[in-house]
Amino acid sequence: MSKEQRARIDAMLRQPRPEGPRSVEAIRAGFRALMAQMIVPDAIRTTRTELGDRPALRVEPEDGPRTGTILYFHGGGFVCGSPETALSLTGHLVARTGFGSYSLDYRLAPEHPFPAAIEDALSAYRALLDSGEDPSAIAFAGDSAGGGLSVTTCLAARDAGLPLPAAIVVFSPGLDATRTGESMDGKAGVDPFFTREGLEHTGAMYLAGADPHQPMLSPAVLADLTGFPPMLVQAGANEVLLDDSTRIAARARSAGVDVILDVTADVPHVFQAFAGVLDEADQALDRAALFLAQHVRTSDAAGLRAGRR
What we know:
The chain is α/β, with parallel strands linked by helices. The chain has one domain: Rossmann fold (3-Layer(aba) Sandwich). Helices cover about 40% and strands about 15% of the residues. It contains eleven helices and eight strands. It has helices spanning about 5-15, 25-35, 85-95, 115-130, 145-160, 185, 195-205, 220, 240-255, 280-295, 300-309; strands at about 45-50, 55-60, 70-75, 100-105, 140-145, 165-170, 230-235, 260-265. The protein has an eight-stranded mixed β-sheet, sandwiched between helices. It is globular.
């Protein structure tokens, strides 16, 4: 654990920003600029493709993937972000697991508010299943809003009667549009990136007048997670959205779901994106890769099981 590394990142995220609500264009440009500073591993290759009638980025190990697919949902508050802005995260997961990933370019608000992102994500999952992929070899993963989308897409898949993926991995997921977590106020000022006002500004674009008191918008407080696959929930202690993670983990546990809540001290929202410059980020990604390797069914694992019989 490096206090110097954490201090540098905290200072970078606290750089002064214009006061008052920002335009959608300014939010998107600022997020692109921030995420362009993240380190993408060399040992991957990317290909533009489509999945469920939406653009997607196929991310694979340079020497080809092993059996197993990560369906990744990028962060950005449902207003900004893209597969490219999340490439440091997908790239490091792919490099560490050997799995291939599809990173989905789902529709964004305010042009396409709730439930457009969930519809796109469910369509992408259907496309994977229709192509013959085994759900036991698929994991959902995502960061921030995309972490929330990993959970709500699993809810939508269950409601549609689809087989569920093998696992879910989420980084600092946004899971409560009601913004009722104690950390929203308790971590105010400690969080170097988010404020309640900023989250409510982008959140209103996604809601577009919808009632946030429903499972697909606030699963941390309202969703029944019965039947969910094993979940790994990672968060930083220095974020206002911390209770989104702690409460979804509690709901999963109450529903009989295997769940690991993994909170790292003194780090910000989606700290995993700082892999290569923050020791805790690399360590967290190592844990996420191990979790995926343990739960995603691969041909290697199948052969090993067959050899034991």
